[in-house]
Structure formats: C-alpha cells, structure tokens
Amino acid sequence: MAELAPRLGDPVDVQRRLEFSLAPGLEWTILGYLDLETVREHGDGELAPAVVDFKVKGSPITQIQAASDPQAGLYVAGRWLDGDAASELLFAQVVKPGKRRKQLTTSLVATTRTAGQMRGVLARLAVAASQLAAAHERYGPDQPWGFADPTSWKCSRRYCHAWAACPGGGGL
User: Fold this and answer.
1) How far apart are CA 34 and CA 75, in angstroms?
2) pLDDT digits over 118-156, tens only?
C-alpha cells in the first residue's frame, strides 16, 4: 500500500454503497460497493473525482483489459447516473509472486468511459437482467435456467444446487 496510496488521490469515501435502478418501477436494482472514492490530479493539473477498486491478483489487469472491464464500466456508469460522475476508475492491484515474478509487486491501471460506453454497459445489464427475470418467471428458483459450460467450475455438485437433477450436469 505504501507504493499505491500516494498515487490514489485524497480519500473522499470508503466502501460506499452504490445502488440504482435502470428504469422506474423495476423490482430489482443494481448494487455495488465502491472500495474507495478519491479526488486526484489529472494531467492538466485539475482535480477530479475517481473511483479506486482494489485487487489482489496473480496476473494484473492490463490497460487493454481495463478498457473493457464490466466492473469498471458499471461503477463509472453508476456514479454518472447518481449525478456525481467520476472521471476514471483505477485498479489498484497487489500482484502476488508466481512463476513470472519473484516478489510481491503493485500495479495501478486507470480507465475511463465515454457517455456512449456507459449507456452501452447499462443496456447490456438491462438485457441480462430481463433474461434473468424471464427465466425466473418461467422456471422458478428450483429448475435449471440453461446449462453452464460443463468444463466450468460453475457446472459442479459443489457450486450448483440443481446439478444432481440437471440434464446438463449430474442428471444425465
């Protein structure tokens, strides 16, 4: 943290609950917790709000990955909808030692979103949520809603309560 903290800006809030609805009258909301909100200086010398998400990883998120990361898009869009837009999201990463690195290291990767990109992430969330709502209405909470990739950890007795009866799992 000694390497990361000086680069994050001045703290404003920690673990703030961010909850919003995508349309009036929906029964469900989107809920997230922002690890850290700061105000930090940008290249032009101006101060601007930022969201910091802390990660401990074996492989750090790269700039290319950050540019399309759904969590970053969701958090920045949530602040935008709140009327308190953040100029960027920072992934403050502690990178664990492994085959490619001998010791613990850190990485700070910043990413931004345009208004169009934020609308896009919100539209994708709305589509996914409507599909979940439709599956719940049709199948209820106890029937499978489609099948996970059988090579995935999600399709296993340990992680899926419907696995034993599911035609895509153990009920073959």
Assistant:
1) 7
2) 999 999 998 988 888 888 899 888 777 777 777 778 788
Q: Which two tokens stand for residue 101?
A: 């690195």
For residue 30, what is the enclosing H or E element?
A: strand 30-41
**Helix (H) or strand (E) run with residue 75 in it:** helix 70-81
Other residues' Cβ atoms within 10 Å of the Cβ of residue 121: 21
User: If you ran DSSP here, which 8-state letter would residue 106 be given?
Assistant: E
How is residue 96 annotated by DSSP? P
State the number of CA atoms in the 13 A half-sphere of 92 facing the CB: 20
Span 59-100, pLDDT tens digits: 899 999 999 999 999 999 999 998 989 989 999 999 998 887
The phi, psi pair for 12, rounded to 5°, reads -120, -40
Give me 80's structure tokens. 């935008």
Residue type, 13: D
DSSP 8-state symbol, 39:
E
What is the DSSP secondary structure assignment for residue 105, as one 8-state letter? E
